[in-house]
Write a structure and sequence with these properties.
The chain is α/β, with parallel strands linked by helices. It is built from 13 helices and 23 strands.
Length: about 475
């Protein structure tokens, strides 16, 4: 029985005593004893009914299943604690808008639907494990009528292009949450953010590094709170953790075959001697099928010319030619197409292990997900610099849909994203793909991220966690 229920019962009993007289003093003493027994737990923990859990799930079938499993674990744990069943939401089910993954578009719905009954909104990833008892103890430390932004604190160790060189004079002064450890917003803060979203505008149309951009939006140039570091929000298990994290590279039962992945490397003549040799010396030997696509034929590599001239900006014309070539009757019947730039370094064995989790009969667009104008119902896309993985059904749907490049030098990744959005094909995110070069200390995962599925040498960022 909760403190709230005990208190209500005792108030009713006291009212009856005033009407009927005092003969039941021993019962009054028993009621007081019940309150005394309940108070220590109440002082040390919040109530689960005050917390809305938001699992940052995705529409892809594999990720949707993982989200459902995580929700079931939370509800089972709540039942074992004997508490009221909490609200546990799957982010991809909140609305038909696929851009809810960027969180900000979803806040007005959360505020309107749950803002009157909840004190906290707690966001976790599909692989984040939560100890409900420990989490409630943590949340009880913070006054619910105040604005709080809680999480495991990350910070840049040097100014980075992906964060637009924010806080370049002192990069470590600004903290942002590690999503794998979970992060929380108090209801007063969520209400104020909702007001800003509904009546204001964002400084950028692009969503690139969600965790950093959310922290910047909340901070609002000093008008809002900075992230409060919570030591119990963990990624690696240790004493007193309220959350822990498993892995971004799940074990779904072995790896797909080399022959199941067709690798398309985009290059051009000026990089034949500079970049292609690096690919050949590192990861080319791990590919079952690999072709280099250039603006000229070079038999020494060899390269294939698709009849599309090289462009200095986007490579939409070349990419769509690759998609059509992948579907040709005379080519290998691989389940997956991987499109990479000639300066992308990738671990194909790790990619093949990851792909075992996905259904090759499903339309899948997989990589590092970015967004354009999501607050205004824009679209998501897989950034090309980190590599784009497409299932054969996804390639077939986009080629047969009539989607086209408006120019050969249009940004291929954004055009593909817009087309997939119109076709209702979800853009599936994996943190194992990186547009920037990442270091092992980012999330404290050691060699796991140091040899992650993909990174490019175009950009560079270092981050550390506290």
């Amino acid at each position: 029985m909760s403190l709230r229920e005990v208190t209500a019962g005792c108030k009713l009993f006291t009212a009856l005593l005033l009407i009927l007289g005092p003969p039941a003093e021993d019962r009054h003493t028993g009621c007081a004893h019940a309150l005394e027994q309940q108070e220590p737990a109440a002082r040390g923990a919040a109530e689960l009914e005050e917390v809305v859990f938001v699992i940052q799930s995705q529409r892809n079938s594999y990720h949707a299943r993982r989200g459902v499993q995580r929700r079931a674990e939370i509800l089972q744990q709540a039942a074992e604690l004997g508490q009221v069943v909490p609200v546990v939401l799957l982010l991809h089910e909140l609305s038909a808008f696929a851009g809810d993954w960027s969180i900000l578009p979803a806040l007005p719905h959360l505020s309107a639907t749950f803002g009157q009954s909840a004190s906290w909104f707690f966001f976790i990833e599909e692989e984040t494990r939560v100890s409900l008892a420990a989490l409630l103890q943590v949340l009880h430390r913070y006054q619910v009528h105040e604005e709080w932004f809680l999480g495991k604190r990350l910070h840049d160790s040097e100014a980075s292009i992906i964060h637009h060189y924010a806080f370049s004079e002192d990069p470590s002064s600004f903290g942002y949450p590690d999503p794998a450890a979970g992060w929380a917003l108090s209801t007063p803060l969520l209400h104020r953010l909702t007001e800003r979203i509904q009546h204001g505008s964002l400084k950028s149309d692009f969503t690139i590094d969600l965790k950093h951009e959310i922290a910047l939006f909340i901070w609002d140039e000093g008008k809002g709170p900075k992230l409060t570091a919570v030591p119990e929000f963990c990624t690696e298990p240790r004493a007193n953790c309220a959350t822990t994290f498993t892995t971004y590279l799940p074990n779904c039962g072995g790896s797909v075959s080399k022959d199941d992945v067709f690798v398309a490397v985009k290059t051009c003549q000026k990089f034949h001697r500079e970049r292609v040799p690096v690919v050949k010396a590192t990861w080319e030997s791990d590919a079952g099928f690999l072709e280099y696509y250039s603006d000229v034929i070079d038999a020494s590599i060899p390269t294939i010319s698709l009849g599309v001239p090289n462009t200095e900006r986007g490579h939409c014309g070349k990419t769509f030619a690759i998609l059509r070539r992948f579907l040709r009757d005379t080519g290998p019947k691989a389940d997956w197409l991987l499109i990479v730039d000639d300066d992308t370094l990738i671990s194909l064995p790790r990619l093949r292990r990851l792909l075992r989790c996905y259904d090759p009969k499903e339309a899948v667009s997989l990589g590092e997900r970015y967004g354009y104008s999501l607050i205004n119902h824009g679209y998501s896309y897989t950034t090309g610099g980190g590599g784009m993985v497409l299932s054969r059904p996804a390639v077939s749907r986009i080629v047969s849909s009539g989607c086209r490049c408006y120019t050969d030098d249009a940004p291929d990744d954004m055009v593909l994203g817009r087309c997939f959005t119109s076709l209702n094909v979800p853009i599936t995110h994996s943190p194992l793909f990186h547009q920037v070069q990442w270091m092992a200390e980012h999330y404290g995962q050691g060699a796991f991220l140091q040899s992650s599925s993909s990174w490019t040498n175009k950009l560079h960022i270092q981050m550390t966690s506290e």
